[in-house]
Amino acid sequence: MAGKLQKKERIVSRLNDVLIFLVVFNILAVPLYVALYTDFSIGAVQELNAKLLYGTLKALGYQVETKDAMVYLISDGTPRFIEISWDSTGWKSMYAVAALIIATPISVMSRKVRFIALGILSMFVLNYFRITTTVLISAVYGFQAFDLVHTILWREALIVSVVAFWVIWLAMEKYNIGKIQIKIR
Q1: Model confidence over 130-168: pLDDT tens digits?
Q2: Span 38-58, average pLDDT
Q3: 178 φψ region: left (φ > 0), alpha (ψ -120 to 50), beta (else)
Q4: Mean pLDDT of 13-25
Q5: Which of 98, 108, 106 lies closest to 165 in space, CA to CA?
Q6: How far apart, in whole angstroms, are the C-alpha atoms of residue 28 and residue 9?
Q7: Would residue 81 count as lying in a domain?
Q8: What are the angstrom distances between the C-alpha of 102 and each of 77, 94, 185?
């Protein structure tokens, strides 16, 4: 009888954790929707991405210029205007990683903050790679490939990477990977 009661308590505890996660995650969705509704953006992040893209393309030998969040690329003698929009900065992926980690009812906040910082940096780097490869593939194979690469390939890849980062973090928390443990005898 005691075993069944303990099993029931574990199930109730897990369901409670799931409920907490869902409530907190949905509360954290509110700022996301406010940002989307108000067309919130941070121009400096867009310009940083444009400057990074400019530097990479210039280093690869492309004829390129930049102004604000625009990159001007000459490809096959044709000028191409590439705007780094707010959505192109990957901010939603960064926000999603942070929200998933915050909403998960395990770990202490200081450990969550470290993984959030690592997650945001990882998503920024991956997004920079996404922007760069999309432009390079388009420059080589024609800009008609831009939407295919940008929308179909990379959108799903970013979603998978956000979930993968979160699952890796969950596994690290579950198995105490990377935690400093001090044993005093």
Answers
A1: 999 999 988 888 888 888 888 877 888 999 999 999 999
A2: 95
A3: left
A4: 93
A5: 98
A6: 28
A7: yes
A8: 49, 12, 34
Tell how far CA 19 is from the center of its chain: 24
Instruction: Say which amino acid occupies 173.
Output: E
Instruction: Print the domain residue range for 80.
Output: 41-86
pTM for this predicted structure: 0.85
Domain count, the chain: 1
Question: Would residue 56 count as lying in a domain?
Answer: yes
Query: Token pair for residue 122?
Result: 């990882």
Q: Residue 151 carries which DSSP code?
A: I
Say how far apart CA 16 and CA 12 lie, in whole Å.
6
Question: Does 158 map to a domain?
Answer: no
- Decide if 171 is inside a domain: no
C-alpha 46: how far from its chain's center? 15
Confidence at residue 153, expressed as pLDDT on a 0 to 100 scale: 77
